Structures
1.
Amino acid sequence: MHRFKTWPVRSALSLFIAYGVPYVYQSAQAQTTQPSPAADDAAGNDGKQVLITGSRIPRASKEGPTSVTVITGEDIEKQGYRNVYDALNAQTQNTGMTQGADFGNTFTPAANTISLRGLGPNHTLILVNGRRVADYPVAYDGSVNFVNLANIPSALVDRIEILNGGASAVYGSDAIAGVVNVILKKKAEGFDLNIKAGGTQDGGGSNQRIQFTGGGSSGKLSGVFGIELSRTQPIWSRQRDFMSSASSDGTAPTRIAGRLNADSGDYIDPGAGCAQMGKLFSSSVVKTGDPYCASGKAQPSYWTTMTQNESKNLFGSLTYQLTPTTEVFSDLMLGFNSTQNNTRGPNWTSEGGGNSYFFNQNTGANESWSRRIAPEEIGGATRYNKKWDDVAGNWTVGVRGDIPATSSWKYEAAYNISAYTSKQTTPLLLANVDSFFLGPRLGYNSDGVAIYAPDPNRLYQPLTPDQFNSIAGEATTRNKSWTQTLSLSANGELFNLPAGPVRLAAVTEFGNQGFSNTPDPQINQGVFYNNSDAEGASGSRKRYALGTELNIPLLKQLVATVAGRYDDYNFAGRSDGKFTYNTGLEFRPAKTLLFRGNYATSFRAPDMNYIYSTTTRGYYSSTTDYYRCAQSGQPLAGCTYNNYSPGANYIQTGSKDLKPENSKSWSYGVVWSPTSNFDVSADFWRIQIDNLVTNLDPDIILHNEANCRAGQLDINSPTCVDALARVVRNPPNAVFQPNAIQDILVNPINAAQERTSGLDFSGKWRIKGGSVGDFVLKANYTKVLSHHYRQFAADPDQDLLNSLTNPDWGSKVNASVTWLSGPWTSTVQVTRYGSLPSADQTRRISPFALVNLSAGYQINSRASVSLIVNNVFNSVKQDNTAGWPYYPVGNYNPYGRMGWLEFNYHFGS
């Protein structure tokens, strides 16, 4: 879905200057030591003080009261993940479907995100080196703010830690479903070159990547740097046989030219018109029995199932040792990304900005003409690509060390600023397109209908690229967002108990964040065909926070953790304050056994997009009108009103009266590690969100409206009253398109509640095989036990887990086997996804598994080479129950088998 909103683009560095007022930032989690792997050794304690995501207190134990999943930089390569997003997307906690870069019709095709526990991308806090980063400047699905994972370079990733639970008492807003902390490398000696290139077996998607990293130290100064350059070519739908035609399953081909008599509802015979267009859309144009000209290749010709991308990512970090106990540090990350995709070609309907029909003076009838323009007419499908040019930056400077006159206390003071800009360029038809096909408008009749005297041959005459350029232009939208924080944190020992010292950490933060959206002024000047006025939006808010955390050894075998934090947000002339807390227990009856439990309260301040969004009018790229499909008696797969494009118009507004979300989460589990080579864990979790801030999904609204009108839902229920009020339709006796949707009214509300629960299992076993080599077996499994949603307090619960409208997975498995023998390393990675609702929402489709393989050889002490194959068995999950594109978009991809060759070389020490 697409609407046209934009903002001024500025480089990340200029944004740093413009917004670099010393405010606060989230005190990162890494202070004097680095987070460690999640699993303890056999003793449950390796004696080293480390920081774990979810706590500000360095500790010896690597397992805390809440489970933490760790993905190392080495795992990203060995398990076949293309980047940081791929690695996170494959994790079993990520059970929610998201509209990523390859989803197609979205507001954010240049971005990727995740949905831990199926609670949406805005309920997971994303950190880089323990610090917040700026949101992507365009809201996900036009509604919620989120962090883009597509531009985090993998070259310098040391590890990624995922805290599987709420943590607002430590990190503040957003940490409801969990926390993802991407930790970059802090040390390097010498230089490393990595070259990787590959593509897909079935065509398209070729990609190349070069990484150069290095570092070292000289006296009191040490540093590390990284450069990553990558390029990915698109995959077009026409390059995959099973989706190269939208009529291969017997569905009627897509109309590309037609004349409809609006008075009778019948199409007018095009005569030889379709033959004139016969070479368009790869010579696939035919005349249907309706009659009109159509092609099964109209949709695949303009659809990229993998976006095109070029990126340049840079990172640098410096540390200077002022004294033996004090150091100054700074790091800078910059990302430059250019993305292109295509979701549909130019499409015209007569008087599209009005009632979509006109009075034909030559025939004396009201008529509606329509025309899809083929790639051959515009100079190739890429001429109609949408483009995004993004710049992201993140800069931190600070000082840390020991507090004088204390034996154990350490501090960190840091300032961080992060900024993101995005420029979107969208090709659009110009307002002169009506006169191009219909000739001059001759006025209006007494009914207010435009009058034309058009030549029908004009409709069926193929265009030249020059003619197309005379009726096409571009709109440029500009978006930006930023956040900055000044923080001061400290940790140390308070006093000793018989079982050990009581440790405390404290943090105070001051910060602000903002965004702005600036539409292309041409949109409101009537330059483009069928475009509603667009309003810009902008806003900012300030925040401060004060938090503390205690680690209390009650007994040698029993440790308690207590944390509390107060956050205050000031925005839109109001102030919202929230106190959150969490408590955790770790019980170790034996060195090899850990029982753990955690209870946490969390919150989320309302998304700024929800608060500051102005009244926005636009249209969705595609819409399914379930009510009209039911009226026509057509099955969803072949329904004329299923996924039609362009879609329905919408009117969206924001609200400054939204309340913060409140969340409660519980978890308890057990970890058993009888040896350093074996550990298993099992955890139960439950999350409940009250006052959920949500912008109702138009597809859900239309689905509810159809069910209410059909009597499947109580028409007097709050849900039905709300849905029927939000869908504005033409009257049943309208001259043209009776009962068609005029507008869908959407706005954010505080829904009553959403809650979910489930189980996580994980295990690792290292087997020493002597001359055969060593084997490492890893497995993770997540099973969602329940997922319920209630929009209004008086509504019954909706069972999302078993709903045929919910595209999330109910279970997910990750398992891998790694073999190590001398210079050889090989890993087989299997990801199994649970069942999903079919596209026509009538049944569930079977689970699906993907297998990745990597094999590496260490040539000598400096050089190594690897072969990586994703989707070894070339499997593509297909679903043709609702027609083209015949696969579950967003849940799976149609790439097929992909392969890469990778070469590494180390220079220096």
Note: Residues 1-46 have pLDDT under 50 and may be disordered.
2.
Amino acid sequence: MPARRGDVVTTSVKDKPGNLPAELTSFVGRRHEIAEARRLQSTSRLVTLAGIGGVGKTRLAVRVAEDSRRAFAGGVWLVALGELRDPALLAETVAAALGLPDQPGRSVSSVLVDHLSARQILLVLDNCEHLLGAVAEFGEALLRACPELRILATSRELLGVDGERVLRVPPLTVPDVEQTPPLEAMSRYEAVALFVARATACLPEFVLTEANCAAVAGICGRLDGLPLAIELAAVRIRAMSAEQIMERLTDRYRLLTVGSRVAPTRQQTLRSCVDWSYELCAAKEQQLWAWLSVFVGGFELDAAEGVCPEELVDDDFLDAVASLVDKSILVREECGEIVRLSMAETIRAYGSEKLRESGDFPRAQRRHLAWHEQLVELAGSEWLGPRQVHWIGRLDREQSNLREALAFSMTASVIDTEPDATARFVNGMYTFWSSCRGQWGEARHWMGRCLTTADAARAEERVLMLYFDSVSAEMQAKLDEAAARVAQCRELAEQLGDPESLEAANYASGYLAVFSGDPAAAVEPFRAAIASAGARSATGSAPSRSVSRVGRQVGGLLGLAAASGLSGDEETAVACHEQILAITTPRGEHHFRAYSSWTLGHTALQVGETDRAATLTEQALRLIRQINDPVMAGWCLESFAWIAIREDEPTRAAVLMGAAEALARTAGSATVTLPYLLVHHDECERLTRDALGIRGYGEAFRTGAGMGVDDAVAYALGDRRTEEPRKAPVAPVLTRREAEVADLVAEGLTNKEIASVLVISPRTAQGHVEHVLSKLGFTSRTQIAAWVAENHKNRQP
């Protein structure tokens, strides 16, 4: 999540799951608001922090959430909505923040409900005001379906949901500007404390003295205690004294008050502060501020240089950007080794207003679209190569900008003049959405809009999109919709008659047959498409699209491998994966190479070649960690468990199964998502339990489940050893309520009967049972009953 005004950056949380950002600057004041918010949380499952822009709602929400962490075993999760423009993607955005990928055959909303229904989670929905209706409906639905869920929202308006409690966030406390308090009393005022803290950060030698005390009090009072305004003023201490800052603010306020007496005072204050900051910028900086406001969710320097007009991108461009950073107009944030720049939403909205006033807004939108189209095209041309990891990271960081550009490409002004733009853009994004992130819902959202609005696009692009949309529908288990797309794709391809369109139609038909349970019928379409692609590659036709063609050929080989394997032709399946490796390995590609290595490793294991299986699985896991695909990483951990039990290492197998299960829960998937592999999972679990016993298996399983992702991967690869499972007393494993539930399960009671006995809801009872299964590493109620019988004397009463 991008940091707001440089105050926070995303960091991992060790003690409990979640994604709260770490504070990089001191948190000032708000004791009363924090206490009141916590009190409201104790009486309501939905609390909204409401207030004007710049009053500090987000920072307060993060602090309240951090202070509430102990109460939420499932973690505290921040969902930043300020950059989201399309309410249709609200569920996808929340799921992404929680790390939940799409699941075939299920809506994102249902996945969210299942994930949240039995977990004690605090969801922080930040900046809801522009999505008010959608957030209200979505939040109410989640709260009704998930009894353990609580929501903390920030908005300029209340959501209007039943049971909502609202805390109006006031400005920071300020001293009386008419009668300045003595120096020793100034620190008790929050606004003064904030000004001093931020001024000292900019100018370490700054101190509050008798000489500047009145000026600082005047600044805080004139700015009405608004944190954003105070921070913008404090940064000027580098070039001005407190008295000079005060003088300039006084003049501005008089002018603004006379100009708009009906505007709310605090809006006047914030507006005057931003106006003042704008006018302190040089003319070029003002232009740059306006032009850079076209970016959503931040940008990198190459994007700024590509989107801004040539007259701004000269020898002084970098100096002007650096000056805007110094003035706190731009916020610098580090994403690994990459530096991104962003604006607070209030600052960006101001710049956008100036851009519209200048008449340059349509031009800026066009340039923003064109640059991001080129970015996606370049990513596609280098996707099957050594820079794949780079491009995955870059497109991840640019998702907000890509969504903005896609939405603009679908407006009438673009479609009328560039009907191909949207289709090219969407088709270019498909590999990212599908291969590496599993964002099938988002892919279908944009493809559906494009197929509806871009009728004038080239038929060749439309054929390709129909193929992509059919596969996406199949991954969502919507076979009727997929079949309709395949029929449209086939009809259009036959009308065109060109080899590439016919290939796309064959790929589409092949995948539909595989997902429909008729793999034998998929073999011929895949063979025909792959042969055609190979023949055209040999003749060197269509060089401009050769890379994407190779990508589709690899996708076809994956389809043929699946169809052949499911049809019993293991030899052809292995040959396909070996051909994929022959294509991708010299190119330095990661994703397809990892998948084929993992598959070949599994095949080697089934014929008893455990050493080769371990080598191929290790290769897959090392590759997949570089592109951060948690689902496939979980598959690899599971495969290592199967290898371990074959090599008579049951403890290692149990640890790896626990790690795979924990990673799958985090990713929102199953450890084994391919049905034909379930038999191997069950066999490994049975052999491991037989070797270790129920108690020993549970201890080893919990050891693995308690590992972080990096530790689990290192353990699987042999890069680090883990301690043997500790022989700790079993009693503390379960809470008192979970122990009660386990006893009732052992007595043979159903979830409904357990709910009646304990006077809780059936859904809560179900959640407790799932927690017991997870903590003990079990998969059935019978195993719980056996565990209760074996460990009854050791459990806490």
Note: The chain has a mean pLDDT of 84.
